[in-house]
Amino acid sequence: MDIKMTGWNLWGIEHRLAKRVLERLTAGEAMSEQKFLKCKLGIEALINNMFKLSIVYAVAFVMNTFLATLFVHLGFLAIRTFAYGAHAKSSVGCIGISTLALVGLPLLIQKTFLFPRVVLLLAALLIAYGLWEYAPGTTAKNKITSEIKKKRLKKRALFSCFLTIVISSLLPLLEANLLLIGNLLAVCCIIPVFIKKGGNQDEKISD
């Protein structure tokens, strides 16, 4: 069985912590080695993601963009959850890109200018078109073979996009900008040119 290790695994910290957590959760329960390894891999991925997020939000706190970063991140997750898309090739790359996107962009928006509502509306239409054309975004390593699942994910991504647009229209201009920037970042991750040139995903998406 080919199971890829995720993240840093510096000094085996993720490995040992994930194993300890899983052993506590499954105390007294019989589990096959294959299932144990899959569960451990999932816990390692969770630990790795929490570590990366803690770095990004620590930088956001230092740069005084914590709330702005949160708005962009929420906008990103609203689409990403259903649209999937490319991942960075390494944890270091992920942290770097995430910091630039979730801290750098909000900082730039706060320090420069805000897009007017009409531009945000055009951006929203562009986001919806991108989702209609490319969602869900998969790679060679991650294929969704079920057409039913593809359609379901596309519908959910579009609905989430519509909901974000409605919410952003009720928010002040700054927060509306931040939410839609997050949406736009998520759509960029499913455009084929970005997936082919730089993205990958580490785990197979099942039907």
UniProtKB/TrEMBL annotation:
GO terms for biological process: proteolysis; quorum sensing. Signal peptide: none annotated. GO terms for cellular component: membrane. The keyword Membrane applies. The chain crosses the membrane at residues 55-79, 91-109, 115-135, 156-172, 178-195. It comes from the Bacteria. Keywords: Cell membrane, Hydrolase, Membrane, Protease, Quorum sensing, Transmembrane, Transmembrane helix. Coiled coil: none annotated. The keyword Coiled coil does not apply. GO terms for molecular function: peptidase activity. This is Accessory gene regulator B.
